[in-house]
Write a structure and sequence with these properties.
Length: 505
């Protein structure tokens, strides 16, 4: 591109925006002093970018017609065949549409990004294909992933496969629906406030938010780097463990992965639950919007773990009740700074930057009215508290988050796993197109009280189906020490093997 030196008028405007008042003489001197820097920018512009190599052939694909997409869960169908052999050979995968798949459109649920086509594959895409999986396309997600419902995507709501007109959960809405409907074996989800575990719970599948940094986020559009997670969504615990084995481990491009510790997760599947110590977190039940049937199903699941030989006891973690409050400044101010003002990538971290995505996403400023109302309210909160309170609450929340992590770690020093409802409710009705603003936004954030805290602390946390209320699935959430996904898989596999489908519980 052409790199132009700013005009005097542009420099004067920049100085004014920065609160500076310069005389014409000083303005001209500063203007002249910029020549060397502009020359450096021109050199950088001429150099080739560093991008991951794309190895597997694919086509741009197509948007399926409604008759072939009854849940509105697909954004683009495009078959990408992986290696002939591998641990995922024969398995089909849907990618959440915040994951870059080179040559295939990506809009991340937002009208402002529609038309963007990545020129690189995410690390997890390459790992899936190297492991023999076949990618079938991109699944719809919520507008820039800012909703736990499934009604904010630019191309319409995603329906729950167990009841049309009801939420599939979000933000990985299409991923959850496609796995639950049997259209794919596996899916990739993303989780910043619960967005893997929420659709897993609503749709009755298995969704793992791994330890923060276990799975590389390279090539996935960030929201806020300290809470960004990506991971597997599957119909069975075994497939989930097998998929995480493929996804996990450092890629050398994601600074979130410091201290990353992997394991052979499938080896845990036959260990059973006998002897495990499971703490039922008192504060995870009885929220203002908790449904009695949901709490009862999760307590019944606790009793089932006891029947499998686990030691199951009540444990109190008072800080859990304010975990979502600690998450709020980090999520709102962080996403406003990184995802929006930072054009999706932000600054001040070493890793793989997707320059093409930054260029495409920057156009949101010209179409800000088209952003979802859930993103708007998050930006209003983030912008207000950053501008008027200097970002101090983001900073303080990050500091307090260490205390929240310590509270969970203290409980996990006495218990192998923590258990609570994934969500306080089962899937709710999708708001009507003309729903009032309060209903629209409330429906997006009403379910995150138990999930959001573990995005802040980074603990591995997985939703497993444990029954139903009024014909809709209920999820139980198992949380372990950092890097101890294996213990979650051991307990979850034992539970699934003994009690089977949620429909029978």
């Amino acid at each position: 591109m052409s790199i132009e030196k700013p005009t005097l008028e542009q420099l004067e405007e920049i100085a004014f925006d920065l609160g500076m008042d310069l005389s014409p003489e000083r303005l001209e001197t500063f203007h002249a002093m910029m020549d060397a820097a502009v020359a450096s920018y021109r050199i950088v512009d001429e150099l080739p970018d560093e991008k991951p190599i794309v190895t597997y052939p694919r086509t741009p694909g197509y948007q399926p017609l409604p008759a072939d997409n009854p849940l509105n869960a697909w954004y683009v169908k495009s078959t990408v065949k992986g290696a002939d052999t591998g641990p995922l050979a024969g398995k089909t995968v849907a990618l959440k549409d915040n994951v870059c798949l080179a040559g295939v459109p990506m809009m991340n649920g937002a009208a402002t990004l529609e038309g963007y086509v990545p020129d690189q594959d995410a690390t997890i895409v390459t790992r899936l294909l190297d492991a023999g999986a076949t990618i079938l396309g991109k699944a719809h997600c919520e507008c820039f992933c800012l909703s736990g419902g499934s009604h904010t995507g630019a191309l319409g709501p995603v329906h729950n496969p167990h009841r049309m007109g009801y939420s599939a959960g979000g933000s990985s809405s299409g991923s959850g629906a496609l796995v639950a409907a049997g259209e794919v074996d596996l899916a990739i989800g993303g989780d910043q406030g619960g967005s893997i575990r929420i659709p897993a719970s609503f749709c009755g599948i298995v969704g793992m938010k791994p330890t923060w940094g276990l799975v590389p986020y390279t090539g996935v559009m960030p929201i806020e780097s300290t809470i960004d997670h990506t991971g597997p969504m599957t119909a069975t615990v075994a497939d989930n463990a097998r998929m995480l084995e493929v996804l996990a481990g450092p890629d050398g491009l994601d600074p979130r992965q410091s201290g990353c510790t992997t394991a052979a997760y499938t080896e845990a599947l036959g260990r059973g639950a006998r002897g495990l110590r499971i703490g039922i977190v008192t504060e995870g039940f009885g929220w203002a919007n908790s449904q009695e049937g949901v709490d009862a199903k999760v307590r019944a699941a606790a009793a089932k773990f006891a029947a499998l030989g686990a030691v199951v006891e009540e444990v109190s973690i008072p800080m859990h009740r304010i975990g979502k409050d600690i998450w709020s400044p980090i999520g709102n101010e962080g996403l406003t700074a990184q995802m929006m003002h930072g054009n999706g990538m932000g600054f001040n971290w070493k890793g793989q930057y997707n320059v093409g995505l930054m260029d495409a996403h920057a156009s949101w400023r010209d179409r800000a009215n088209d952003l979802s109302d859930t993103l708007k309210i998050s930006m209003f909160i983030g912008e207000y508290f950053t501008k008027h309170y200097r970002g101090r609450f983001y900073a303080k929340a990050q500091n307090i988050a260490r205390r929240l992590k310590a509270a969970y770690d203290d409980a996990l020093s006495r218990y192998d796993l923590l258990l609570m409802p994934t969500l306080p409710i089962v899937a709710s009705k999708i708001p009507e197109r003309d729903a009032d603003l309060v209903t629209y936004t409330t429906r997006a954030f009403e379910m995150i009280a138990n999930t959001a805290p573990f995005d802040v602390t980074g603990h591995p946390s997985m939703s497993i189906p444990c029954g139903s209320v009024d014909g809709l699935p209920v999820g139980a959430m198992l949380t372990a020490k950092h890097w101890d996904e294996s213990t979650i898989y051991a307990a979850a596999a034992a539970f699934e093997g003994e009690y089977g489908s949620w429909k029978g519980m």
